[in-house]
Amino acid sequence: MQCSPREFCARIGIQRPVLNAPMRSWSDAVMATAVCRAGGLGVLAGQRLTGAELLEGVRKIRDETDRPFAVALEIPPRTPMNLSAVRRTVEMMSAVLDELGLPADPAYYETRLPTSPERFDEQFEALLEARPAAAIALCGGWREIYGEALEARGIRLLGAATTLREAKVQRSSGVEAVICQGSEAGGPRENFEDDARAMTGLCSLVPQAARATRLPIIAAGGIASPEQAMGLACMGASAVMLGTALAATEESLAPDAYRDRVRYASPSDSVLTDLFSGRTARILRSPLYDALREAGSTALGGYPLPAAVFEPLLAAAKRCGRSDLSAWPAGQSVGQCAWRRTADAVEAIGSAMIGIS
Fold first, then answer.
1. Are 44 and 71 in contact (CB under 8 A)?
2. 88, exposed or middle or buried, with CB in 10 Å at 0-12, 13-18, 19+?
3. Does a structural domain hold residue 88?
């Protein structure tokens, strides 16, 4: 039987069935706290944090609220990596790196892979120490050894899926709810079993996953209005996760140029590319993206090898206010992002879902 939004809230100990997406570019403890205070389940994006930074983020949330929150971690790839791809990416981007004052030495980036099994183990130890209400697995499922350790500390397991097959894998890994990322979603695709090109929209994925897993389904991707959330609840969603819809709120870390884009862009302004990390992501078109595509560039190596170079490059461009050198994540809710405060979105969208439970 479908878990209603009201029942989902009762299980988790929240008032509104809304989560913020773990947007590592635009969200931090401030946004997670705002979601918690509005009655939702705030999510701290832990994907790129050190163990110490993760614990500091958790401390900031707990200093401001005693409500439940979650921490998201990325399951790292465990396949051998050919670091020669980093060298080729540095060579391709050397002129831009020099312009931004970044070194054009491949050795500098080879030691700065954004994710690795070693970094994950450090993050996981911090997660166990932090003891949030829930832990979210991105790009994979919780292995048994991790799941058992989390459950022993009373931490609920959640996991992301992009296809019906992945939703079933998450169920097998022992999660209590599946976050179904539709093809409309911004940022990186969280696929791990199926190819990123095997995209499914929420209107198809949510009812199929709800029926097949019999678990609460958290719908994510292109959601920005109460009407969308209500429709997804009718299809089987127990909660929703908001990403781009919150990117222009007061609590977002996004630059002003990005806020303007997501308010006034159209869904067709977002594109899918693996150029910047080796993992397919939905971003807003930019002069940097267009130049790379016109040059016939492709991702050099699989995830996370290109990200070792592009993440520092894009961060430096952001500090310099270079919106032309951007790869801003954005879902297909662009043009609908009129929420001023995070709480406004959580309260309106969450209350609408509760109202039809």
1. yes
2. middle
3. no
Bridge partners of residue 235, in order along the sequence: none
- 283 and 273 Cβ atoms separated by less than 8 Å: yes
Q: Which amino acid is at 342?
A: T
In angstroms, rounded to a whole number, what is the distance separating the alpha carbons of residues 184 and 58?
30
Integer Cα distance of 262 and 311 in angstroms: 21
281: containing domain: 5-77+115-286+327-355
Structural domain includes residue 49: yes
Give the CATH number of the domain where residue 65 resides: 3.20.20.70
- What are the Cα distances from residue 168, in Å, to 87, 171, 174, 202? 38, 5, 10, 16
Which segment of 104-113, 120-129, 149-158, 210-219 scores lowest on mean pLDDT?
Answer: 104-113
Within a domain: residue 91?
Answer: no
Q: What is the number of domains present in the chain?
A: 1
DSSP structure class, residue 329: B
Contact 34, 23 (CB under 8 A): no
Q: What is the pLDDT of residues 263-280, one digit of tens each?
A: 999 999 999 999 999 999
Helix (H, G, I), strand (E, B) or coil at 41: strand
- Full-model pTM: 0.96
pLDDT digit string, tens, across residues 37-94? 999 999 999 999 999 999 999 999 999 999 999 999 999 987 777 889 999 999 999 9
Give a yes or no: residue 95 inside a domain. no
Q: Name the one residue in this structure whose structure tokens are 């773990």.
A: 22
